[in-house]
Design brief:
Strand order of the largest sheet: 1-6-5-2-3-4
CATH superfamily of the largest domain: HUPs
CATH architecture of the largest domain: 3-Layer(aba) Sandwich
Largest sheet: 6 strands, mixed
Strand content: 15-25%
Distance between the termini: 59 Å
CATH class of the largest domain: Alpha Beta
Shape: globular
Number of helices: 19
Radius of gyration: 24 Å
Number of domains: 3
Helix content: 40-55%
CATH topology of the largest domain: Rossmann fold
Length: 418
């Protein structure tokens, strides 16, 4: 195996992936001097990974490209009790069958970012060593190394004590620390990465390795990514921006990145593409209408990584079809098919916008209409009482009967009526 490329830590830092690190100088030397095995955990609490996971996926990918070995750890065991980190209340306990199904979807999605062939990377599931633990033996071997006072000093537990922290959640840090110890013993794993809310858990695992094995391990966390306009990162009109095309279409995913504030383009190009920093600096320097070119590049690059080049190209063409009046690629738009009976007696326009997912509630639909931001087939809707009937249908570019909905300037949804 060839030696790792130098400057791996600096790559992470210059692109914005480094928030907290247990020892920056020592970790930089380690990454430059030898091939390092590192890991990130993904608890399968949802049916898909989402935009919030991209930071970890790209940071792992950059290290692998520099010659290091990633372990993607599916939290099939830890997910059974729930991580209190960053949460104001306890997570619901999911059925094991749901956890396993979610984990399989995660595996496929992670595979778009990391190479698991020929010893290049590993994928593990912590259920393999957590599910069968003997509780008494575990307390004797591992639990005795944890100080309750120290655990309560971490911000995660401090915050949760105010709203209520269950005993089952209190065990989470111990289990995650044990994961790090297991991966250290099995694979020589020396680095754990995660989001800033994981700092206490990662440091606890690092400390456990030192106490039990006398080994040196490292902790690295990525920052919380926010948008400059105050919106929560990765939230669309329909909720979380998932990576599964069945939950968020490639078109919707592409459109999300087209619609980010100009001020965020450079940051997201550094975090969520593999473009060289010099090219990113040039794109970041584009102003006013020219800045759209940088957003288009971001949207295309990231959609291709997540969904594949063909889907990204289709999303781009669909976007052009809407904005430039071309119809060849409309099939890539978010679309629903309704029976004609849906509109036979007239349907409130507010309900149609809610059903399409362009707004989250009837009150939001009414507000959109009053602000002049709702259109149906290029006709601005001026009354919140408007009923959409078959008379509102038009023949689309592909010959289908359609309603083309638009919320604001950039959010579209197509309804085919048969």
């Amino acid at each position: 195996m060839s030696s790792p490329a130098s400057g791996a830590f600096q790559t992470l830092k210059s692109r914005g992936f480094v928030s907290q690190c247990s020892d920056e100088a020592a970790l930089a030397r380690l990454l430059d001097g030898e091939r390092v095995t590192f890991y990130v955990g993904f608890d399968p609490t949802a049916p898909s990974l989402h935009v919030g996971n991209l930071l970890q996926l790209f940071s792992m990918s950059h290290l692998q490209r520099a010659g290091h070995r990633p372990i993607a750890l599916i939290g099939g065991g830890t997910c059974r009790i729930g991580d209190p980190s960053g949460k104001t209340e306890a997570r619901p306990i999911l059925p094991v069958e749901t956890i396993n199904a979610n984990g399989e979807r995660f595996r496929a999605q992670i595979g778009r970012f990391l190479d698991f062939g020929a010893g290049r990377g590993l994928m593990e599931n912590n259920a393999d060593w957590l599910a069968g633990l003997n509780y008494i033996d575990f307390l004797r071997e591992i639990g005795r190394h944890f100080s309750v006072n120290r655990m309560l000093s971490f911000e995660t537990y401090k915050m949760r004590l105010e709203t209520g922290l269950s005993f089952i959640e209190f065990n989470y840090q111990i289990l995650q620390s044990y994961d790090y110890l297991v991966l250290y013993r099995r694979h020589g794993c020396r680095l754990q990465m995660g989001g800033d809310d994981q700092w206490g858990n990662i440091v606890a695992g690092m400390d456990l390795i030192r106490r039990v094995e006398g080994g040196e391990a490292f902790a690295l966390t990525t920052p919380l990514v926010t948008r400059s306009d105050g919106q929560k990162m990765g939230k669309s009109e329909k909720g979380a921006l998932y990576l599964d095309p069945a939950l968020v279409s490639p078109y919707e995913f592409y459109q999300y990145w087209l619609n980010i504030p100009d001020a965020d383009v450079g940051k997201f190009l550094r975090l969520f593409t593999y473009l060289e920093l010099k090219e990113i600096a040039e794109l970041e320097g584009l102003k006013d209408r020219e800045a759209n070119r940088a957003k288009q590049r971001l949207a295309l690059e990231l959609t291709a990584i997540v969904h594949g080049a063909a889907e990204a190209a289709g999303a781009r063409e669909a976007s052009r079809a809407v904005f430039e009046g071309k119809g060849a690629a409309l099939a890539a738009m978010p679309t629903a098919t309704w029976a004609a009976a849906e509109l036979a007696g007239g349907k409130p326009v507010t309900a149609i916008f809610v059903d399409a997912g362009l707004v989250s509630s009837s009150s939001e639909a009414r507000r959109l209409i009053k602000q002049g931001g709702a259109t149906v087939n290029d006709r601005k809707i001026e009354s919140v009482e408007y009923l959409v009937t078959p008379r509102d249908l038009r023949v689309g570019a592909d010959g289908a009967q359609e309603l083309m909905l638009r919320a604001g300037k950039k959010h579209f949804f197509r309804i085919l009526v048969e």
